[in-house]
Amino acid sequence: MTNPALKKNHWTSRVNECSVGKDARGDLNVSLRGGAENGEFAYIGQINEDLVIYRDGKLNEGELLLEVENLSISGLPLYDVQTLIKNCKSPVKLKSVRPVFCVSTGKKRFQGANYGSTRGPGKYLACLREP
């Protein structure tokens, strides 16, 4: 049995789907920040609203980027995400979500936490701390 209140407030109910066209140079005119090399998830930086070509939906600054062309980009370094977008045909389909209090752009807080090694989430998060 599912709780309707939980479903309504779950972050997956707030996923934003957007299609953005490329300009003549092949740019989206959307700045990306973060990336695994910085210990963060990729997220939307500054948006030049005058130059962005929206086909469907709209992006907002600060949203976490989840997918590019239905490919999950979680854990990818920023240069891989940018290369993926560069190689996509226009318009590029993006999925993003606005971060809430329990979702952060930074992974370091969760990786560095001491959860113990034998019970709870510690045994699952240990693999994140390994090189």
Automatic annotation (TrEMBL):
Signal peptide: none annotated. Pfam families: PDZ. SUPFAM superfamilies: PDZ domain-like (SSF50156). Residues 17-100 form the PDZ domain. PANTHER family: MEMBRANE ASSOCIATED GUANYLATE KINASE-RELATED, MEMBRANE-ASSOCIATED GUANYLATE KINASE, WW AND PDZ DOMAIN-CONTAINING PROTEIN 1. This is PDZ domain-containing protein. The lineage of its organism: Eukaryota, Metazoa, Chordata, Craniata, Vertebrata.
